[in-house]
Amino acid sequence: MTRAAPRSKISLSRSGDAAGFSTEWVVLAVLALLVLLGNAAFWQQALAGRSWADWQTWRFALSVGVMLTAAQAVPVLLLANRWTTKALLVLLVVCSTVSSHMMSRYGVVMDPSMLRNAMRTDVREATELVNLGLLGSVAMGAVVAALLWRLPLRQRPWRRALWVRGATIVGLLVLTVAALLLVFQDFGSMMRNQKELRYKITPASVIWSSIKATVDDLRVANAQREPSQPAQRLAKAEGRKPQLLVMVVGETVRAMNFSLGGYARVTNPELARIQDLIYFPKTEACGTSTEVSLPCMFSAQGREDYDEDLIRRSESVLHLLDRAGLRVVWLDNQSGCKGVCQGLETRDVSNGTDPVLCPDGRCYDMALVEGLKAEIQRSGAAAPAKDTVVVLHQLGNHGPAYYKRYPENFRRFMPECTRNELRECSREEIVNAYDNAILYTDHLLASTIALLKEKQSQFDVGLIYVSDHGESLGENGVFLHGLPRAIAPKEQLAVPMLWWLGSDPKAGWGVDAACLRQRAEQAASHDNLFHSMLGLMAVQTPPYKPERDLLSSCRAR
């Protein structure tokens, strides 16, 4: 009897060691499942043009599948233990199902810029991406996650667990290298020529991009700000009226749908009637997302000298104008200024209560014009009246719910897509809704110019409009925006830009309108904005480069 007890304990211990599923096998099974079913966008592009009748296709697909499974399993196994395994696997499943849906439905890629956009999207924008397809993906992921959570995992003595885990990781590394060598030339060439593919591998791309975006944000947040540059205004002529410049930042408007630039459908009927308007038909955006373009377009570096960290640590042109003595105000109907207006006067007009301008708790862009009226009144009431720059940040054509960007009386191109699942709409319906939103921007700009015309007796007035980036509307299966700039199509980079400098630009701003009209026929970009605004407002500062100032050769002498 006294000897039976120890044997019973040993037996129970071994039984406990053998109970449940091996953590290593569970991790491999989950990663294999995600590689097979959660990477539709990757496989579609990687296998395009290959015939399944060719055994080389099978060898390629099998080798790449094994390589991706093994390579992604290694870091998971390095982090997995009895407390973290299930949480890690649930996180990977959820990330994979959601990102796979977004990539398959909209053609986006999960690079750090896209993940930074996702992390900074407000609740209202995020809810517009919710549809049955996304909910179905989330539900499927939730079911798999729930099953994983209930799965019993085997527990081993720590020495044996360490040996098994180490041997498994070594074996996976060998398997990864072996699989890669089988298709090295083919796979290497594909990844070099199609760099976006690396961001279509889930869950690795989502995790890596999220970590990199977070680390970059923390590094910039903790980095020392660049020193402020001196900024001084040139003396104004005696008796000159105060200046009022309105800068309208468009959202997600592409140049090819602007009829001022030659688009066959009339999407700019009101602007077309303004004869002293100057349109720049060859303008290129700095980036393909608000998160990139907005800081870039107001920076001294721009795309030509692009350094994201430096741009985010440096003052925007608005800060220079402010320190030069102008009143600078940012009116926002979007999700913030991405640091461009930090420390300046800002007003959020997106949460107004006007039942006409702000139905369902979300304001149309004409709320910006009402806000502008109040800011003009404030500047005009000062003694003396203040030189003022007001920035209007539009909601514009922010997708995918284009139909929510304009009121009923702007539903002119029909039928329109009234769903946020764009693939459920025909291309005609998508374009109709998108063009209706441009019609509303046309009305906003024309209304703003009409308001400024009313103030010409009090101010020298002007308006600049440029969109932050363009949009894909299904071309080559791509929707929305945010592709890495190196592979972005022209639909996401070509943007409309226009200038209006009052009825007499020479008298009000010292600019030869005919000269500027000629300059508008040449290429322009977001890089011109920083220097052109400084030149227009006669602010001297070391970062100013006259060769990037659109007006430098057109100033009246």
UniProtKB/TrEMBL annotation:
Q: Where is the Sulfatase N-terminal domain?
A: 244-537
Record's InterPro entries? Alkaline_phosphatase_core_sf, EptA-like_N, PEA_transf_C, PEA_transferase, Sulfatase_N
- Transmembrane regions listed in the UniProt entry: 58-80, 87-109, 129-149, 161-184
Domain called Phosphoethanolamine transferase N-terminal: residue spans:
70-215
Per UniProt, what is the membrane topology? Answer: Multi-pass membrane protein
Q: Which domain of life is it from?
A: Bacteria
Sorted UniProt keywords = Cell inner membrane, Cell membrane, Membrane, Transferase, Transmembrane, Transmembrane helix
* Single GO MF descriptor: transferase activity
Q: What is its main location?
A: membrane
The protein's location, in the record's own words, is: Cell inner membrane
Transmembrane recorded as keyword: yes
Q: Which PANTHER family match?
A: INNER MEMBRANE PROTEIN (PTHR30443), PHOSPHOETHANOLAMINE TRANSFERASE EPTA (PTHR30443:SF0)
**Protein name per UniProt:** Phosphoethanolamine--lipid A transferase
